[in-house]
Amino acid sequence: MAAIALTGLTKDYPGGVRALDGLELDVADGEFFALLGPSGCGKTTILRTIAGLEEATAGTVVIGGDDVTRLPPGRRDVAMVFQDYALFPHMTVTDNVAYPLRIRKVPTAERRGRAAETAGQLGLTKQLDRRPGQLSGGQQQRVALARAMACHPRVFLFDEPLSNLDARMRLEARTFLKRLQRELAVTTVFVTHDQAEALALADRIAVLSDGRVRQVGTPTEVFRRPANTFVASFIGSTPMNLLPGTVTAGARVLVGDAALPAPVGEIAPGTPVVYGIRPEYLRLTPTAGEDTVTGEITVVENLGSTQLLTLEGPAGTVQVVVPEDSEAAPGAPLHVVPRADRALLYRPDGDGELLTNCPTPGGAAPGA
Amino acid sequence: MPADAAGLGRARAAAFVAPALLLIAGFLVFPALWTIYLGMTDYRLTGLAAAEPAFTGLDNVRRALDEDQFTHSLGLTLQFVVGSAVLGQALLGFAIAWLLRERHGALRRLVEALVLLAWILPGSVVAFLWIALLDREDGTLNALLGTPGTAWLVEHPMAAIIVFNIWRGTAFSMMLYAAALSSVPPSQLETARLAGASSWQQLRDVVLPRIRGHVLTNLLLISLWTFNDFTPFLLTNGGPGDETEIMPVFVYKTALFNGELGYGAALSVLMLLVNLVIALVYVRLLRAREAAS
Prior knowledge:
The structure holds 2 protein chains of 2 kinds. Chain A is α+β, with helices and mostly antiparallel strands. Chain A folds into 2 domains: 4-224, Rossmann fold (3-Layer(aba) Sandwich), CATH 3.40.50.300; 229-346, CATH 2.40.50.140. Chain A is 23% helix and 33% strand. Chain A is built from 8 helices and 20 strands. Chain A has helices at residues 43-51, 93-103, 108-121, 137-150, 167-184, 195-201, 219-224, 229-234, and strands at residues 4-13, 17-27, 32-36, 58-63, 66-67, 78-81, 155-159, 187-192, 204-209, 212-217, 241-248, 252-255, 258-261, 272-277, 282-284, 293-302, 306-313, 316-323, 333-338, 344-346. In chain A, a hairpin with a 3-residue loop joins strand 1 (4-13) and strand 2. The radius of gyration of chain A is 24 Å and the shape is elongated. Chain A starts with a strand and ends in a 22-residue tail after the last strand. Chain B is mostly helical. Chain B is built from 14 helices and no strands. The A-B interface holds A 51-53, 72-76, 78-80, 82-90, 99-100, 103-104, 131, 147, 151 and B 185, 187-188, 190-197, 201, 205-206, 209-210, 293.
């Protein structure tokens, strides 16, 4: 069993930069856990602190019930795959994969056998005698994975594992990685700045900014019910529309000149709020009405099976995802209706938290 | 790459290169050939042979190989090169570079400045500093160690010039190794650390294979420089006796003190051949490495 528990984790760098500030995070045994955030949010620092490559200024790191906060990296029983794979260029694939076993003084014959077996599981049997320079990017990544797997660690740590692959390979590797993690069932923490990657791979995601956890939840929770405006604008391939508005009578929110239906709950009329709606949950309508957002199309972006339209109107700038066959042209007026059950209300000040009396859209479990 | 990228044509290109070639011919090629010629004569600074040097063929070379003084001097030079360059400068330079690799700020700048200072000071200044350090009567070292009256340059002359040259030349190795170490990706060292590798294992498995080319290049350069270094003469004058009469000092004394210009020239040519052998050994090692990888 190798759950990870980070308690009160603080990391100060020399020069007074505080990368992490009293961070609390629990990763369950066997879980595929993503640390997601923009660059500089501290996600890599968390990963490196779990690995022991960075020493925590305060707080504890517990892996599988053992406090490893003061243990050197080599005694934590974790394996890490780096963004650049960190393969040793002067060693063959076999020697690279067997390297951790060699450090542990496993006899030569045994470690060669184990390296060949692990590499074989990852489809590298033909490449065993090659050097990293003779392999493709995807093969190099699998060698790095094999090296991490070969000594059966309690925890895998992946630092941006897919970012050095080209777009097509990345999709392939993503599916491969997810299947592999399911089969091995080893607790895995990975760092990414790509929200699509985190949504696709992870069992749970921690969204971070400025060294703080902004939300922890399953991909569904984080996507459907972002806990604050930061998460709302960070998650999703097109950011959520966040429109300033005011609660009015009749469970509606006045945004510009439109009175949009919203889960107002107990919020008193006249309260300023931020009305959040994803571009995917806005539907075209031929006629203007009280509950339609109206504007002029300024930009049309073709996304293949859909189009992303940018509207300018009284409500501000609004983005809408419409089917590929809609005949949208810049300059044309457009009316869209939000799906009431997908609208979310956020506080306009502070951290922009989700107003708690919103009902859960789509019946998903409340965020953890 | 096209043969004539600048579009000058053969004649004009030659005209541009000619002045440089003339300078090289006049100040490099001619003196070298002249030294080889002188080495085959009995040319002297004074006396009859100064006016009419006689061609003696390979007599000078035969004399050198027969004389104990030459082999003695060559042996001393090899001690000096191995002790001060290959072991001293290279190991110490690497050690400093390794220890400073993750340090930034005041300490690193201080160490680098001190080490570099030893390297950029003129030889005569440095020699004076060391004579003051090692002096028998009022030397700093005797004061520090509490050993008044120890004449370091007389009692341990070879050790003294070896330590002196390590002190003086380590900066180059340090800088070269520091640059080489910064080319080792941190993620590779960290992978080794995560596997549980000790510092020594990280050096052996990750660092040294990666910087082997830098190591060989450094050893080649510092070996040649040390082999041809004349500065120890300023400390010991080749003495006491001939205990520190390394090759450059031997040549200098033969040609200019004894006035045997012809013999001195022959010794210079022999030195050049030894340099060539050293260079060939290193180049071959470098090639072998490239072929292996």
